[in-house]
Amino acid sequence: MQSPPELDDSETVVARQGETRGGGTFEFGEGQKGDALIIAVRCQGKGEIEVSVKPVDVGFPLECVEGGASATTSTAYNQVDVAGVEKKGTVSVLAPSSVRWSMTIGRG
Fold first, then answer.
1. Would you say 40 and 103 are in contact if contact means Cβ atoms under 8 Å apart?
2. In what order do the strands lie in the sheet with 58-64?
3. Among residues 27, 6, 17, 28, which one has the least CA distance to residue 95?
4. 52 has which bridge partners?
5. For a surface tag, which of 14, 37, 52, 68 has the fewest beta carbons within 10 Å of its beta carbon?
6. How far is Cα of residue 14 from the mean position of the Cα atoms in its chain?
7. How far apart are CA 72 and CA 44, in angstroms?
8. Which tens digits make up the pLDDT trace of 1-13?
9. In terms of pTM, does the model score above 0.85?
10. Model confidence over 39-97: pLDDT tens digits?
11. To which H or E segment does residue 89 belong?
12. Which of 13, 11, 23 minimizes the C-alpha distance to 101?
């Protein structure tokens, strides 16, 4: 699988999670007032992962695909701009052991 997703030059990386199999949780630091939170996820393997962000109670699913000879991956970029998004928090991923994923968290 490839490395965690890259962000645009105008966005600042605040956390990265390398290739992980199954579920996991990690923290990100607080941002400045007015900054949006960017969550970029890349996954590979058969199944769906569920991403949830606290304390803002935002979540989304991502359907992952089986990696064949072409090493197919699914990538999703989500930008969250709701009250409280500048606070520090955690990102949790629920995923079957058949799925590998990586993530980049940014501010912009």
1. yes
2. 24-28, 89-94, 47-54, 58-64
3. 17
4. 59, 92
5. 68
6. 12
7. 7
8. 568 999 999 999 9
9. yes
10. 999 999 989 999 999 999 999 999 998 865 556 788 999 999 988 889 999 999 999 99
11. strand 89-94
12. 23
